[in-house]
């Protein structure tokens, strides 16, 4: 076989291979998409940052997390549950529990970002405070309001200590 014949035979083989692939042959696999970042649920964010477990029967969970220019994080959360769920939330390790038969004052309401349209409380409030027990760098404050006989509205404020 001459060099010219070998080159021609190789070109014909390549053309036949290309034609076979485009005419229904196996196509190269599509590149897989890059893995998406793992989304942490709101309950996971509360547990991870503040070391607190949101009750399974909680509803309406809202979480907001902000980081200051200095790199300190503040996490706020709000959810509704029953009294037992709220009591279990405040029974977490290293939280002191402080009942207040009169309910929160204006300063507490402002600190927890409570909307003035919030139904308030029919049976005082409970405040729970303490540092996250693992590293102790996160301060946790919880305010529980009781808008109904077996209803609890839980407000959480957790923040990095400088």
From TrEMBL:
<feature type="region of interest" description="Disordered">
    <location>
        <begin position="21"/>
        <end position="44"/>
    </location>
</feature>
<feature type="region of interest" description="Disordered">
    <location>
        <begin position="114"/>
        <end position="134"/>
    </location>
</feature>
<feature type="compositionally biased region" description="Pro residues">
    <location>
        <begin position="28"/>
        <end position="37"/>
    </location>
</feature>
<feature type="signal peptide">
    <location>
        <begin position="1"/>
        <end position="23"/>
    </location>
</feature>
<protein>
    <submittedName>
        <fullName>Uncharacterized protein</fullName>
    </submittedName>
</protein>
<keyword id="KW-0732">Signal</keyword>
